[in-house]
Amino acid sequence: MTAPHGRGLLHLAAAVDQRGSLDAAAHVGPAQLAERGALDFVTLGDTSGRPGPDALGVLARVASATRRIGLVATVPDIRSGSREVREAVETLDRISRGRAGWRSGGATAGAGTGGTRGTLEAQGIEGGGEARRGTDGEDGPGAGGGGTGGAGGRDTSYRVDYRGGTFSVTGPPTGPPPPQGHPVRVVDATGSSVRRTAARYADVALLRVTGPAQARALRAELRDAAAESGRAPDTLRVLGTLTVDLGDGERAAEPGHGGGGPRHTPRGPLYRGGPVGLAELITRWHESEAVDGFHLIPAEPHRDLERLVNGTVALLQHRGLFRTFYPGSTLREHLRLARPAGRYAVTR
């Protein structure tokens, strides 16, 4: 499907973090609202430093109350390549019938290794990528060729064998391959230390930038790096990350928040204005090939998510820029990404 201006339809995602709430049930309503808007996926930040269930546990609860929307959990950088996390994400993929994804984040600088946050994140991404490659037979999960036993007649005696500088993942996985082959990997690729690794291993790259020209340049850099690593650039989706404050209703965007882009703040790019102005911003960036879509973070969780879905998304749908229903059932299908057929076609 293509938009009126000739590009593929937008991809849209939203954060469903609930300030001050540790109750998994509190996240169900926001996820269902995002699903009514046909968003590609929702994200939940790292909750490991607080009491209560972690992000993966919360989204497992959300999975049972939703049917189509993708569910992307944030895990700490220091754990993102571990067997425990990999198997937990794959479990979420099975529970949700192919809607799981994960992103690394939440490590403090120097935690555990004396490295920087960027180094930790890159190690987690790369380690997860190697573990993912290790779980595929030559025909890939569910390919139905070669070997016997397991889903599609595939030999299930594959192993994971990765030894990195900070962790190791070895031995056979404990369950069948997840429905998507590999859950979707989402990476914040804003930092230069992570960008090349993201281009090699990520399915979705996030950019925290305030202008379309900068986003366009970084998107081109990511796509070029993906091609250099041996993968097709069109297998990588690049989304702008933007906090949205829609408290002004239908009023125009405040100076510095509309026009060419949002305003820079210590917490990242911020748009403050109305749903219509946000739709105009999203349309301009997408038409200019700055991004493939947006990951939107409501400044006020309940108010802004409702105005985003019922205002901005509805307008984009009316203009033919965003889907009105889910044509598929898995997160990869929402993102128009093929199910991996085997190991990444890259060399070390």
Question: How does the SSE layout of this entry go?
Answer:
Layout: E1 11-15, H1 28-36, E2 41-44, H2 55-63, E3 70-75, H3 83-95, E4 100-104, H4 117-134, E5 160-163, E6 168-171, E7 184-188, H5 192-201, E8 204-207, H6 212-228, E9 237-245, E10 263-265, E11 268-272, H7 275-287, E12 293-298, H8 301-318, H9 331-334
Parallel strand pairs: 1-2, 1-12, 2-3, 3-4, 4-7, 7-8, 8-9, 9-11, 9-12
Antiparallel strand pairs: 5-6, 10-11
Helix pairs in contact: 1-8, 2-3, 4-5, 5-6, 7-8
Mean pLDDT: 79
- How is the biggest beta sheet arranged? 8 strands, parallel, barrel
Task: Look at the helices and sheets and give the structural class.
Answer: alpha/beta
N-to-C SSE string, H for helix and E for strand: EHEHEHEHEEEHEHEEEHEHH
Main attributes of the structure:
single chain, 348 residues, alpha/beta, eight-stranded parallel β-barrel, two-stranded antiparallel sheet, 12 strands
Gist of the model:
It contains nine helices and twelve strands. It is α/β, with parallel strands linked by helices and 348 residues long.
Give a verbal description of the structure.
- Residues 106-120, 133-170 and 343-348 have low confidence and may be disordered.
- The two termini are 35 Å apart.
- The strands form two sheets. Strands 1-2-3-4-7-8-9-12 form an eight-stranded parallel barrel, surrounded by eight helices. Strands 5-6 form a two-stranded antiparallel sheet.
- By secondary structure, the chain is α/β, with parallel strands linked by helices.
- The protein is built from nine helices and twelve strands.
- It is globular.
- It has helices spanning 28-36, 55-63, 83-95, 117-134, 192-201, 212-228, 275-287, 301-318, 331-334, and strands at 11-15, 41-44, 70-75, 100-104, 160-163, 168-171, 184-188, 204-207, 237-245, 263-265, 268-272, 293-298.
- A hairpin with a 2-residue loop joins strand 10 and strand 11.
- Helix 1 (28-36) packs parallel to helix 8, helix 2 packs parallel to helix 3 (83-95) and helix 4 runs parallel beside helix 5.
